[in-house]
């Protein structure tokens, strides 16, 4: 036994020596032996080969220092013209791609701001792998390039450290999500990109078919129908990090193509879904931000959110809840209040020292077209217990004190009051609350406050079309206790959906529902939305047919992946977290798309 073991050891030794002789020449010609972010003072004395882009060049007589950058970091190169084998150090330029071979040495002037700041490479051989034109903007953290220019040269913008960190964060989020869902037995299933156009709320992007002239595919707004069909097929835990497409007007948190974390589960109720995806969110916070969220996410109904915050995605990083004071202030002879359908107030804490100029500026702010109010009333709760108001003529000290008490304002606070039509005023006071939270530093981007909003309306009335439309989508189930009301049109406004949103810092990052899984109820839903039986069969016949073959109770959620990444990264714009985004006009500045197609293509497509 011992002899056989010795023979094996000797054989392995011979094999290792032969392998070393074979692969040694290959090791010598490797482009790099280590990356630009890996070396530390413990590596001093090693010979290494680095490759990367020249970030900066600094010359001091016959000595040149080069900061070499790759995806992993920056390493300083020390080039002495008497030591370095290179044709012409003076010819080197920023963003040149080079290969440098040399010895790791300790730096005399260490840079504590760099992970590699204790060492540098004493270069013995340098090779230019590719030259670079002068970049149109400086590739630094604080660049001099405007957004349009950087989007045109996005391949250069992606070299900047802040952009790289954003994409690294995006990858961390996707990895955390996949790890969690895999652990909980979800299976990732791809669904088609070329589908049939179906009414889901936004406009479809359509693709003409060459083989079926005059007919069109649509790009999916979401995989909604496919994930429900996967539940019918028995794949009870599905997910997909998937591209979706909506032809909408754009803003900072919208792109024509965006990414969803799309999930569906069978044999679950609302509580099951909220629990598991709350745990997933906590896992993302833990892995990406190092935050432990041990408390359960707060929950709030849609009605509570609208009452206290004026919108269905409240920012609960700060209080400043909306105060309903109409009954308290009407009938006092102040026409604006007396004629108003709604009168709301908010209390700005410790703001009674605001100057008239500051208050006038806020008044102009609420009068902007985006807000739409005609003016604003203020009440200062002064430190001495008295009050100063823009409506002193109509409200005496006692009345002002009653308002302050009703609003739970204390000495030093400032009350802002808006009055007017209900919908407009509620939206305006909500926006004013957020603006004051921003001005008072109460909306820090590194402070995260998630919550669930539940019990949304199932329908909303569209006065322009004189019909009810689905608040979420046509496949959302009503609350079980409201199911009987689906037969009574007069009850539509009161029906609550078995739906829920996940909100983070005033932004909806996910929404879902328990789905309809019974053909009869789905047909009632289509009828309520104004579809004829023929229209329902034409657009959704495949789904209705599937419901006849043993469909399980099911529900799911879709989280806005880009939005989640932006919030975790402290940005308002999802474009910062997409490798190749479109601009506000929906254009790809780098590719110059969309663009025309030639006549041959048009003819083939029958256009």
Task: Looking at this protein, list some descriptive labels.
OB fold (Dihydrolipoamide Acetyltransferase, E2P), Gyrase A, domain 2, single chain, 5-stranded mixed beta barrel, 23% strand, BirA Bifunctional Protein, domain 2, alpha+beta
General description of the model:
This protein starts with a helix and ends with a helix. A hairpin with a 2-residue loop joins β20 (499-504) and β21 (507-514). The mean pLDDT is 92. α4 crosses α6 (270-289) and α4 crosses α15. The protein is globular, with a radius of gyration of 32 Å. The strands form five sheets. The chain has an eight-stranded mixed sheet, sandwiched between helices. The longest helix has 27 residues, at 2-28. It has three domains: 41-130, Nucleic acid-binding proteins (OB fold (Dihydrolipoamide Acetyltransferase, E2P), Beta Barrel), CATH 2.40.50; 165-300 and 450-577, Bira Bifunctional Protein, Domain 2 (BirA Bifunctional Protein, domain 2), CATH 3.30.930.10; 318-439, GAD-like domain (Gyrase A, domain 2, 2-Layer Sandwich). The chain is an alpha+beta fold and 607 residues long. It is built from 16 helices and 22 strands.
């Amino acid at each position: 036994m011992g002899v056989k073991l010795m023979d094996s050891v000797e054989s392995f030794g011979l094999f290792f020596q032969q392998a070393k002789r074979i692969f040694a020449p290959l090791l010598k010609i490797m482009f790099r032996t280590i990356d630009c972010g890996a070396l530390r003072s413990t590596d001093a004395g090693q010979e290494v080969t680095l490759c990367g882009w020249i970030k900066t060049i600094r010359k001091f007589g016959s000595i040149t220092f080069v900061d070499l950058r790759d995806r992993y970091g920056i390493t300083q190169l020390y080039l002495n013209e008497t030591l370095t084998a290179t044709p012409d150090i003076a010819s080197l330029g920023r963003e040149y791609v080079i290969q440098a071979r040399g010895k790791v040495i300790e730096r005399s002037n260490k840079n504590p701001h760099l992970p590699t700041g204790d060492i540098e490479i004493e270069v013995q051989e340098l090779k230019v792998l590719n030259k670079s034109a002068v970049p149109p903007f400086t590739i630094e953290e604080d660049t001099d390039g405007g957004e349009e220019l950087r989007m045109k040269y996005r391949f250069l913008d992606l070299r900047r450290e802040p952009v790289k960190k954003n994409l690294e964060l995006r990858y961390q989020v996707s990895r955390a999500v996949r790890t969690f869902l895999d652990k909980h037995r979800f299976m990732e299933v791809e669904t088609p990109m070329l589908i049939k156009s179906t009414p889901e709320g936004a406009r479809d992007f359509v693709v003409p078919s060459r083989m079926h002239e005059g007919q069109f595919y649509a790009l999916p707004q979401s995989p909604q129908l496919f994930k429900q069909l996967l539940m019918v097929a028995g794949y009870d835990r599905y997910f997909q990090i998937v591209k979706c497409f909506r032809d909408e007007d754009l803003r900072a948190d919208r792109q024509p193509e965006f990414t969803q974390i799309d999930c569906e589960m069978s044999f679950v109720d609302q509580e099951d879904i909220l629990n598991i995806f709350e745990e997933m969110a906590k896992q993302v916070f833990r892995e990406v931000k190092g935050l432990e969220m041990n408390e359960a996410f707060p929950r709030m109904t849609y009605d509570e959110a609208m009452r206290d915050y004026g919108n269905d995605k409240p920012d609960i990083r700060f209080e400043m809840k909306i105060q309903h004071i109409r009954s308290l202030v009407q009938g006092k002879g102040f026409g604006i209040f007396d004629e108003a359908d709604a009168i709301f107030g908010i209390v700005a804490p410790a703001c009674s020292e605001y100057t008239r100029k500051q208050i006038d500026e806020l008044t102009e702010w609420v009068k902007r077209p985006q807000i739409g109010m005609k003016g604003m009333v203020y009440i200062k709760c002064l430190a001495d217990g008295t009050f100063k108001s823009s409506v002193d003529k109509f409200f005496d000290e006692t009345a002002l004190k009653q308002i302050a008490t009703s609003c739970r304002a204390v000495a030093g606070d400032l009350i802002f009051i808006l009055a007017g039509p209900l919908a407009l005023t509620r939206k305006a006071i909500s926006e004013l609350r957020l603006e004051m939270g921003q001005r008072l530093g109460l909306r820090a981007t590194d402070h995260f406050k998630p919550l669930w909003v539940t019990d949304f309306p199932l329908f909303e009335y569209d006065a322009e079309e004189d019909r009810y439309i689905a608040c979420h989508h046509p496949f959302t189930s009503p609350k079980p206790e409201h199911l009987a009301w689906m037969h009574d049109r007069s009850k539509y406004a009161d029906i609550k959906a078995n739906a829920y949103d996940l909100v983070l810092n005033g932004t909806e990052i996910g929404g879902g529902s328990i789905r309809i899984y019974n053909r009869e109820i789905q047909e009632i839903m289509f009828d309520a939305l104004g579809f004829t039986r023929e229209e329902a069969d034409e657009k959704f016949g495949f789904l209705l047919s599937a419901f006849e073959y043993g469909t399980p109770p099911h529900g799911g959620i879709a989280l806005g992946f880009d939005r989640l990444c932006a919030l975790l990264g402290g940005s308002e714009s999802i474009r910062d977290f997409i490798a190749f985004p479109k601009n506000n006009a929906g254009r790809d500045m780098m590719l110059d798309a969309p663009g025309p197609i030639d006549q041959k293509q048009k003819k083939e497509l029958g256009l």
